[in-house]
Write a structure and sequence with these properties.
338 residues, alpha/beta, Alpha-Beta Plaits, TIM Barrel, 2 domains, 8-stranded parallel barrel, 4-stranded antiparallel sheet, 11 helices, 14 strands, elongated, binds phosphoenolpyruvate, binds manganese (II) ion
Length: 338
């Protein structure tokens, strides 16, 4: 349920509404907009109480039930776009934020080369997996703690924020010490214990779409982060599983305008995991920017042929630099910039 306060409602009126809500044992999230305050009422049985109980309170303009399964991620609760700021870099505004780097951190030399290349080409955030969620237990699982240390080094050397994946709720605080953005991977989108821990950390987070999940399930998963008071949530479309097997996954390009319609959260696109092949990445990345994505997450490796993970879909530094030039033109044509 959402309770919309009148423009100019007093603090006492807002407090009285919050008190009343809490008297039912429910939680509240206040959304103080530029014009109005919206009180989001969070509880499992709010449907059993008539809305009039709140509608009659002084300062209340309207009371609406949110019929969608997701609440805090919805535009009904927050009409204005959410901007997530990381070290002064705004995600969800006019700028298209490019995050790039290797799938996995493999060595100091590899990460240093990748960081230099992506920064020189204009990426503003360095990606690199230290903990890798692999389909097979026999595949390389990442350098883990050593990988985090290498990320911390590269971050300091190149003065660039980093995004890295967290796969286990027990490691959230350790990873968050290095990460400027925590990545929750596709396979963990519905790992609710992990989402709650990441929510509690208050660290900015990229929530990747589960490859077998609907947009509704994805936004409902985002509610787990938002419910903990972590508002710095960025969604990432990375392709879904369909019958089509000429690409690794099928990028759901329509998810971008759909998210923009139903949610206030920024949405970025990972063309690398969708494509599965480096030759397809540029076209998909450009399409994503044209369709309104707020950023991109792209795999770049100094020597893709030697990569331990995802070499086939990784761009060389030269191909990445070329793509960045092309993306600048697309961004400009849709009133944005990189
Ligand atoms: C990744 O970004 O390295 C990754 C594992 O992606 P996804 O979770 O989308 O498969
Ligand atoms: Mn990868």
């Amino acid at each position: 349920m959402i309770i919309e306060m009148r423009t100019g409602a007093t603090q006492e009126e807002i407090d009285a509404v919050v008190q009343k809500v809490k008297s039912f044992g429910w939680n509240v999230q206040l959304n103080i907009g530029t014009e109005k305050t919206v009180v989001a009422v969070l509880g499992s049985n709010t449907g059993q109480v008539p809305t009039d109980i709140f509608a009659v309170l002084p300062g209340v303009e309207s009371v609406k039930r949110i019929m969608k399964p997701y609440k805090l991620a919805s535009r009904e609760v927050k009409a204005e776009d959410t901007l997530v700021t990381i070290n002064g870099i705004e995600i969800g505004g006019r700028r298209i934020v490019v995050m790039a780097g290797p799938c996995a951190v493999e060595s100091e030399e590899q990460l240093t080369e990748a960081a230099r290349a992506v920064k020189d080409a204009g990426a503003s955030i360095l990606r690199g997996g230290a903990f890798k969620p692999r389909t097979s237990p026999f595949s390389f699982q990442g350098l883990q703690k050593v990988g985090l240390e290498l990320l911390a080094k590269a971050k300091a050397q190149f003065n660039i924020p980093v995004i890295t994946e967290v796969v286990d709720s027990r490691y959230v605080s350790m990873v968050a010490k290095v990460a400027d953005i925590l990545q929750v991977g596709s396979r963990n989108m519905q790992n609710f214990t992990l989402l709650t821990a990441v929510g509690k950390s208050k660290c900015p987070v990229v929530l990747k779409r589960g490859f077998s999940c609907t947009v509704t399930e994805w936004l409902t998963a985002a509610d787990y982060l938002l419910a903990e008071g972590n508002n710095r949530v960025i969604l990432c479309e990375r392709g879904i599983r369909t019958f089509e097997d000429s690409t690794r996954f099928s990028l759901d390009i329509s998810a971008i305008p759909v998210i923009k319609k139903f949610s206030h959260l920024p949405v970025i696109v990972d063309p690398s995991h969708a494509a599965g092949h480096y030759s397809l990445v540029p076209a998909i990345a450009k399409a994503a920017v044209a369709a309104g994505a707020d950023g991109l997450l792209i795999e770049v490796h100094p020597n893709p042929e030697k990569a331990l993970v995802d070499g086939l879909q990784s761009l060389t530094p030269a191909n990445f630099a070329k793509l960045m030039e092309e993306l600048r033109l697309i961004a400009r044509s849709v009133g944005r910039y990189i």
